[in-house]
Structure formats: structure tokens, C-alpha cells
Specification:
The chain is of the alpha/beta class. It has eleven helices and ten strands. The protein has two domains: 127 residues, Oxidized Rhodanese, domain 1 (3-Layer(aba) Sandwich); 87 residues, no CATH class. Strands 1-5-4-2-3 form a five-stranded parallel β-sheet. It has a three-stranded parallel β-sheet with strand order 6-8-7, sandwiched between helices. Strands 9-10 form a two-stranded antiparallel ribbon. β9 and β10 form a beta hairpin. The radius of gyration is 20 Å and the shape is elongated.
Length: 228
């Protein structure tokens, strides 16, 4: 039987083990644990169909529909996971840590792998992310006019061993003057929060952290209010 982890323990294990996200493509695109591998149990349309049956008819019929959809894909799921990993141990999660991740973990264990699940799923991870922005930090804001070289200074400080967060790099946006010119497409604000939280949790909160002074939003991405 797969072992279930609370969020903190799950993330500790995730530092060395692959994380399999079995939510739909749309859920994954909206936001995911950095580095997670998407192996969706249902497509967006399939998930919507099962959800509609659950709400309008019954849980039993929704489960039956889910089994009809998933059944032919079982071998493919195992093959996909094994193609992404080198060892025998993985972590699995869904949205609430319920049937999707539990069933997927059972399948992997049946195929010879060891799987751990996340209690309360991605929802628990998101709560953990949002709470991380309220932790006390020794931030030093680097201000100055556009074009004055703030980003270059940040990179120089990082080379000197200082702790640095480059918000513009994380957002794929150079601020009001240069915006998205030459940048890759922006992720969602949710994914930005996940990425920022991962960086913060790896830094030493007892030491100073340099960061460029930014407005609340960079393009379509909004900096979490509690952090800003």
C-alpha cells in the first residue's frame, strides 16, 4: 500500500524523487509543483464529463464512468511513468489527494514500483505555497530608474555569493518600459507563485536577500500581496 505524506514531508522526498501529477492537462497548465511530470489520468474533456455525472447523478456512476475511461489506458500510464524515471520509487498527487492519486499509486505499485501520495493533494501544496509568503524575510530592495542596470547589479551580487531573487526573470517580463520584448511566454500567476515559493524555501531566511523593487504586477503576473 502506498505511503501517504503530509506536504512538508512530501516536498522533502520530492528533492530526490520524481513527482507524478495525475491531474488533467488544464489543471497542470494552470499551476503545478515545479519539476513535476504530467501524466493525466483524464483529459480535460474526460474530467469534465466525470465531474458532471458526479454532480448531476451520483458518485457511483461517476466512478463507473471513470473506470470506463481509464481502463484501456492502464498499460500506457505505467509505460509513461517508467519512461520518465530511473529508479523504482515515485511520488504521486492529484487535486485533493483522493481517488485519482490513490488509484494511480495502486497501479504503479502493482507494476513493481513504490509510490507515495500527497495527503490532501495539490490543494495542500497551494496552501503551503501561499503561507510561505508570510514568513519573515530580510529583503533588501534595489531601486532605480529604468535602464540604470539594476538587473546587472543583482547578477553581480549573486556572483559574489549573495542571495538574490530576480523577479523579472521569473515573470519573463522586463517591466513597464521593455515589457515582454524578447521574453518567453509568461506562465500563470499561480505557477509564478509556485516557482517563487520554491526559491524562497531554498534560501536562508536569516540572511539578507536582494530583490529588485517592482510594481505589483509584471505583465499578466501579479506578485502575491503578502510578499509584495
Amino acid at each position: 500500500m502506498a505511503k501517504a505524506y503530509q506536504i512538508k514531508d512530501f516536498l522533502v522526498h520530492a528533492e530526490t524523487l520524481p513527482v507524478i501529477d495525475v491531474r488533467s492537462e488544464g489543471e497542470f497548465l494552470q499551476g503545478h509543483i515545479p519539476g513535476a511530470i504530467s501524466v493525466p489520468l483524464f483529459t480535460n474533456a474526460e474530467r469534465a464529463a466525470v465531474g458532471t455525472i458526479y454532480k448531476q447523478e451520483s458518485k457511483e456512476l461517476a466512478v463507473q464512468k471513470g473506470l470506463e475511461i481509464v481502463g484501456p489506458k492502464l498499460t500506457s500510464f505505467v509505460q509513461q511513468v517508467k519512461s520518465h524515471i530511473s529508479g523504482k520509487e515515485v511520488l504521486v498527487h492529484c487535486w485533493r489527494g483522493g481517488m485519482r492519486s490513490g488509484s494511480f499509486a495502486w497501479l504503479l505499485e502493482t507494476s513493481g514500483l513504490t509510490a507515495g501520495t500527497l495527503i490532501k493533494g495539490y490543494k495542500a501544496y497551494r496552501n503551503y505555497v501561499l503561507s510561505s509568503f508570510t514568513n519573515p524575510l530580510k529583503l533588501i530592495l534595489l531601486g532605480g530608474k529604468t535602464g540604470s542596470g539594476k538587473t546587472k547589479i543583482l547578477h553581480y551580487l549573486k556572483e559574489q555569493g549573495e542571495q538574490v531573487i530576480d523577479l523579472e526573470e521569473l515573470c519573463s517580463h522586463k517591466g513597464s518600459a521593455f515589457g515582454a520584448i524578447g521574453q518567453k511566454p509568461q506562465c500563470s500567476s499561480e505557477q509564478f507563485e509556485n516557482n517563487l515559493s520554491e526559491i524562497l524555501l531554498r534560501l536562508d531566511s536569516n540572511k539578507r536577500i536582494w530583490i529588485e523593487d517592482e510594481s505589483r504586477n509584471l505583465g499578466n503576473i501579479y506578485i502575491p500581496e503578502s510578499f509584495w
